[in-house]
Task: structure prediction
Amino acid sequence: YRVKRAGGGHTAFQHQEDQRTSLQVERLTALHRALERDELQLYFQPVVFAESRAVVGHEALLRWLRPSGIVSPLDFVPLAESSGLIVPIGRWVMRQAVNAVKTRRLQLVSVNVSALEIRQPDFTSHLRWVLEDSGIDPKRLVLELTESSLLEPRFAPLLHEVHKMGVWTALDDFGNGYSSLTAMTSLPVQVLKIDRSFTIDIGKDIPGAARALEVVRGIVTLANAYGLPTVAEGVETTEQADLLTEVGCAYLQGYLFGRPKPLF
Ligand code: C2E
Ligand code: MG
Ligand code: MG
Ligand code: MG
Result:
């Protein structure tokens, strides 16, 4: 676990490190129990068609309901990913999301899938089983994947297989981090989600606002040239919604149209 350096005692630094590690272990144990004790819940946020502002689907977003309060996925998904716990959690998410389509009659549900999940050799067979078991039309399901997980060429056949099953895939958080044109132009995905970091400046009385809009216009134009409709994330004002519609974003998502919340 940790090899003590020869001659070195227990330094203050090492003590801090050990404390951090035991905190992580505690949190991981708690997260493990959360899955068994039904402390995880899916919230759903609407996605609207830009032209009409009609709801066309929902993104499923995970929450951990602890006795002490609601924990954001930003605070536990990374731990779940590094520990591998995201695999059983992701399977739970998939079943819940598909079930919501069935029982709540959602038109479309979008599910976030981590890199580690799609790396499981039985990812597609599990997906196929969940779909068959529920009986929903696979066209009602969208898998949101990020570039970091998809850029390995070996994922292209997997994406094709998912597409053949009838399930849509979306490239999530486009423009955040290591985005490349290669991702947009070479991956067999059907939707491009433009990261909130672009939307945030649009329609504001700040120096970068006009440029942010032009960048989004460029992304949308290019995406459309490759036959990909776009979803703008993080839309909070009507000014943003109108400008994004004007530059050709097909779909919009953000607090303006609804925050993530339980379905009932
Ligand atoms: P994401 O997939 O990019 O999801 C969008 C995030 O933006 C959500 O944060 C959503 O609540 C937030 N958001 C939506 N509209 C607005 C807005 O108008 N303003 C602002 N400020 N924020 C907005 P959330 O729910 O905290 O999720 C964070 C990230 O956690 C997600 O980013 C996704 O990467 C990950 N995540 C969530 N649920 C799951 C899951 O079931 N599985 C996996 N693997 N990851 C998940
Ligand atoms: Mg997402
Ligand atoms: Mg996103
Ligand atoms: Mg994002």
Residues 173, 195-196, 233 surround magnesium ion (ligand 4) (CB under 6 Å). DSSP finds eleven helices and nine strands in the chain.
